[in-house]
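cron nightly-structures :: item 1 of 1
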Amino acid sequence: AIKDKTTDTYKFNHKSIVKLLQHPFMRQFERRNCHQDSSENPKSDSRSLLLMYIQCIHRENMIFLGKDDLIDLCNQPSFHEKVQDDALLEYAFSAQKKITPLFQAIFRRWTSAYDSMEALKDILRLIYEPSIYFESSYLEEFAKILVKMEEIFHNNFNKGNKGKVDLRTFKIFLYQAFREAKFDFDGDKFTQLQVTGLNETRNIDFDNVIIMSVNENTLPKGKKMQSFIPMDICTSYGLPTYQEQDAIVTYHFYRLLQRAKRITLIYTLPSDTYSGKEKSRFIHQLENDLRAYNPKITFKELKATFREKQAKPDINLTFEKTPEIIEKIKQNFEKGLSPSHINTFLQCSLKYYFSHINEAHQNRYAEEKLTTEKYGSIIHEILEELFREFTNESPIVAEEQLRLSLKTIEQRVNDKFVSQKYASYIITGQNYISREVAIKSISQFVESQITEILDKEKPFEILILENRNNEQENFISKMTVKVEIPFENETISLTLKGITDRIDKVGNLFRIVDYKTGKVTKADIKISKKDLEKLALEAKSKFEKVRQLWLYKYIIAKQILENGEDGLELNQHIIQKDDEITAGIYSLRNTEEGFIELPHTHKDERKKNQDAENVFPMEIKAYVELSEIHITKIVNAFLDTNKAFERTEDIEICKNCNYKAICGRN
């Protein structure tokens, strides 16, 4: 638990909270108290506020929660957004009122042993249900232990000395009492099968006896003393020791066997798996000693072995492209196809099916460590905020602005890490390392931007920043274009879309820029003309980045051609078909290589290197025509009914897949 200094309350780790919400007593309390008004049988009512709470904790990545957070959870906007069924939402509010007293009792603050005992008794009163036999027996025994401890404390500590029994000492005594507790279950004495403890068999004879766990240290228990008095002192003063306990157990054991006609003794062989000890000395005595005195004893030893669990057969899970699925794919084309969608399909078409056709639910779990996805989001958000602040004054980003921003980076990163959006990550361990790496990466990138401006002796001008949730008039999304693709006897309407981090202008060159938090080198996006044929249909990792840059440039180039002489307007700049456009990556872990471009040559570079291989045409019209040939191949692959949705052969891709449990790669 951690202490919230602002409210002087304690918050608990989400793992402990989830375990509490999943506890059988909690589920029984909800079923008993919250399903009474149900039109269905309360036992068959599947609604569960506790389950909704668990899902919300994982979905919103709530790492630490206190009593007030838990009680007020269903009043949060994020809870309402996901529970869209009015009847279910009404049940949630009704159940919340009934469960709140139990939460208040559980999270009541304990200041002394007496407070804790009162709180535990309140919890017992709330969760006790006599109709549930086994659970109520445990709770009754627990209540007896509390009463006994309360009597001991009252007899040994007067009211003025209550503080002497602190919570730590109380916990030690309570756990010791649990270990010594024995539970007696009442059964029907007229049934032929009786399940009893060894002590309960006194003065009762059975024809058939089955005794479980006849191993050393279990029967008898061995050299264990439930006493704080040393063995030497017990022996000197004639106090009972483990030897007397062994004698009592031995007496009960042989008395039980005295008139039995059939005896079954079950023990486990020594094993690391089951923590089994040697078979009990009682079995050795029966086998080697008593059998010699009583010839009527017949001894038969059987060994039971468990078959090893066979591995599940590898299921070749596939889904054929039925007319309904083809129609769903076409609908997805109209909504928008992004480079990430294409990469997913080419990597593993089955994953695309689950995520975009079947729209299978992805289980989410709260993460205490900053995930790679959220780390990337923090980097991208900070860079966007930096450049947006610059462009509020002027679209031109100069060296002086960048130098001033270096002083604010550390505070910006700290603010992101503790913001509610990122679940207020505790800055320790791996999260501390991630924060330091983020500060260093952003600082190095800004410094590399300064170096680039000085080397080229010209600043760059921001035309568009990441076109997501932009409300300013000058930042309208331009990364969307509609394309008509011929397919068999029809024309497919395809919307290509993307999210680029920024579009800027350096001199006469217009650049489509994407940031990568991982390491990317020029070799990672270097392809030949031979690779161009594979770009549309193969899932190699190097093709993913090239495919993204290629399609980003195509989206802009296509709009320029469609607008004709009017060109494409970006922040008061008109891009014509004769202008130079490129797409590339800034790798924050490889700032030395600067802007890593899509493989083609510019006009000024052709003079220096006449032999450079021009993979993509520089002319916009030729670029668009070549691109649409490969886009058509991609569309055909999606709609090809001869190729079913099937899982990838590359198991490495499955490691971080949310659907690996479904397809059998878990």
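cron nightly-structures :: done
The two ends are 33 Å apart (CA to CA).
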